[in-house]
Amino acid sequence: MFTIATWNINSVRLRAGLVTRLLGEEAPDILCLQECKSPVEKMPFELFHELGYRWIVARGQRGYNGVAIMSRLPITDAGDRDHAGLGHARHVAARLENGVTIHNVYVPAGGDVPDRDQNVKFGQKLDYLTDMRDSFHAEKPERSILVGDLNIAPMEDDVWSHKAMQKIVSHTPVEIEHLAQAQDAGGWVDVTRKDIPQGKLYSWWSYRARDWDAADKGRRLDHIWATGDIAQAGHASRILRTVRGWDQPSDHVPVFACFDLRV
């Protein structure tokens, strides 16, 4: 059995102390980070090595994007994909010794206007998801886990108000449909919602809220998926809401799941 966590850290160098705190308190076997905002050579991996995370694969980019997979279990680099040809460090994959492949994905946020004709970033987001879909059609994933900040809250209970959010980027029908197509193409199961099928569930709260906890206008943007052949091994999903209240936090919090698979 192993535990995996995903967290958009919003600068791994700025928040290295929060990462070490999470590793010390929760000790997931694997932690996937997004929005590291750093070249790989400047990510503070030595701090995480000291806590037992000896195996790390990452892709970096100065000031933007960046993804990393850190593990207490042996992993090997399984490559990356530049979806939609954006030239962004938004995906990296690693393989466990049991053959399970872990994909760490950071889907573009998409800007503020949900119209690709008015907003290039929104078009890039849709193209990224379309390319994900096409890659899963071309090569059906097996024994795989996909985690990350997918920047879409697909279900009505994944946002604080379905009615208010339908025209807001991250919960528009066109984004939800593009995400569903990518999910279906890979035969992915949303492990978090398999475990917690009902009720409001958030992993992100805006910095703009003066009191994020009291306002509680959250969105579930961070996800853990698994292919159908191993999805039933996933369980014990949880979202660490309290992390949003740590000192100088990311606007995202970690999402966890356990997998009953031999390592």
UniProtKB/TrEMBL annotation:
Its cofactor is Mg(2+); Mn(2+). GO terms for biological process: DNA repair. Residues 5-252 form the Endonuclease/exonuclease/phosphatase domain. Pfam families: Exo_endo_phos (PF03372). The record marks 222 as: Important for catalytic activity. One of its GO terms (molecular function) is double-stranded DNA 3'-5' DNA exonuclease activity. It comes from the Bacteria. Transmembrane segments: none annotated. Mg(2+) binds at residues 8, 35, 149, 151, 251-252. The record marks 252 as: Interaction with DNA substrate. The active site is at 106, 149 (proton donor/acceptor), 252 (proton acceptor). The record marks 151 as: Transition state stabilizer. PROSITE patterns: AP_NUCLEASE_F1_1, AP_NUCLEASE_F1_4. InterPro entries: AP_endonuc_1 (IPR004808), AP_endonuclease_F1_BS (IPR020847), Endo/exonu/phosph_ase_sf (IPR036691), Endo/exonuclease/phosphatase (IPR005135), ExoIII-like (IPR037493). Belongs to the DNA repair enzymes AP/ExoA family. This is Exodeoxyribonuclease III. It comes from Paracoccus salipaludis. The lineage of its organism: Bacteria, Pseudomonadati, Pseudomonadota, Alphaproteobacteria, Rhodobacterales.
